[in-house]
């Protein structure tokens, strides 16, 4: 009896350990089964979602491809229509509006006319330039002749060379010009001495400048003649050039 009681007591003590072990085994088994089932559900949901997304994406893609094809066909149709219209309008314009060959001939004639006008303008400009140069030369010659007539009293004499025939300076030909032109007459000199009028205002010539007011003009020091006397002597053709020197060469002259 004692042995039976001990065996029963040992069995009761091991029953709790066996129960806990059975619980652990069941929990592990059920956990594995649940996790496996959850993985199955997750994989199945992923497949369903991927299939649905693939379907919707393909549907949108097919719609866009269809729209692109429609736009491409419309663009090709517009391009073909524009080409047809261009050909037709070109034909209609050339036939009923204006003639291409006549227009080309007109433009060629305009180009030739432009070339002729440019040549005429170039010749006209050259002629104007020559006329201007000729007038300037004539004006220069007239001024030179007038200057020679003004300085006719400086012409060389038998006793003494003139200012423009000095042996110390090169001959410029002005002495020959003075000998060829006549001197100015009294009337011409008076006309040159008259004041010049310009733009409605009277301007005195350089020989008749008005004296400065309120200015004391000191007398020049030295053996010099009065400027008015020198001016009269300089423009008096009857007096020889020797007398026209403004400086008194002798103290008692």
From TrEMBL:
<dbReference type="GO" id="GO:0000922">
    <property type="term" value="C:spindle pole"/>
</dbReference>
<dbReference type="InterPro" id="IPR000048">
    <property type="entry name" value="IQ_motif_EF-hand-BS"/>
</dbReference>
<dbReference type="GO" id="GO:0007051">
    <property type="term" value="P:spindle organization"/>
</dbReference>
<dbReference type="GO" id="GO:0051295">
    <property type="term" value="P:establishment of meiotic spindle localization"/>
</dbReference>
<protein>
    <recommendedName>
        <fullName>Spermatogenesis-associated protein 17</fullName>
    </recommendedName>
</protein>
<feature type="compositionally biased region" description="Basic and acidic residues">
    <location>
        <begin position="188"/>
        <end position="206"/>
    </location>
</feature>
<dbReference type="Pfam" id="PF00612">
    <property type="entry name" value="IQ"/>
</dbReference>
<dbReference type="InterPro" id="IPR051185">
    <property type="entry name" value="ASPM"/>
</dbReference>
<feature type="region of interest" description="Disordered">
    <location>
        <begin position="188"/>
        <end position="218"/>
    </location>
</feature>
<dbReference type="GO" id="GO:0000278">
    <property type="term" value="P:mitotic cell cycle"/>
</dbReference>
<dbReference type="InterPro" id="IPR027417">
    <property type="entry name" value="P-loop_NTPase"/>
</dbReference>
<dbReference type="GO" id="GO:0005516">
    <property type="term" value="F:calmodulin binding"/>
</dbReference>
